Request: fold
Amino acid sequence: MRKISVPNDYLPIIGLCGSSGAGKTTLLEALIPKFIKLGLRVVVVKHGAHRVVVDAPGKDSDRFFQAGADVALFGEEFFLRRHDTDGFSFFLRRLCAHYDLVLVEGHASTPVDKIWLLGKGHTRPPENAGTVLHIIEPSQRRVEAVYDWIADRLALQCRQVPIYGCLLIGGKSSRMGRPKHLIDQDGLTWLEDAVAKLEPHVDQVVLSGKGEVPSSLTRLVRVPDVPDLAGPLAGLLSVLRWQPAVSWLMVACDQPAIDPRAFSWLKSRRKPGIRAILPDLRGDGRVEPLLAWYDFRCRPLVEQLAAEGCLRPGGLVGGPGILTPQPPADLRGSWRNVNTPDELKSLMAS
Reply:
């Protein structure tokens, strides 16, 4: 199973760079509250920091570090002091799994796409400034203008993240008495029909779960469930681990009445800061974890659910960035589950 490499263009990493005294820190300090107010998780990385002191020589934690251990300080604040590093670019990419905006305060050699703040007496960035996306002259140093530029870029990046589709298939389907994904309707199995509906809306479709697959679908990648987990959470966590930099439309094989417009509706609700979209059909707090959208940044929340023994993706509700909108009335039938022969008869008669 091949993993894709996501270019930095899709990731919310933006440098705010310039020469010393150009006003980088002042501008960042004004920008941060505005993005926090939107509900975004923001991290600032200072590149090329010098003479940083995070621990006092002779303290217990410093002695542990000097003895060779990495040291975590966990109390009113949290610090992690490490001996080795993964490289600056990889470090930034890892931050994107947890944050909606990674702002890098740096200089010409900082290896990120950047906004460049011109200092007094300068008319252009230096030749070694790398990729400069936007130049701000001293007379243009308005917080609102920079905020709008970054917000527009974040919205564009959010919609550039690849979307994969995952269809969950079961085994014997005891209540139905036969595998639901192999039920034939109008010459197609439910699984074949679901794939045909989903493929136009995603970059790739994969299957998760055990069970026989029609010969027409053997071309699809099958992602094994996470061991020792059951239900939809096992499939969700398996694909989040397999491709950790894409978003997912998760669909069940027992939703044969899906209107493809439901996929478009879910995709239209994406925006920076949203980690998952779990529809609430009746507005009563009961959400649908399948035929739902999950951003790769929800993986830490899903990992936490699994570690706590919660097997329901609905346990994400109430977490940061979890949206629970009510679908339009004419699309709500898409979330209809068919689990028994009586429900199947009712579907065929409708």
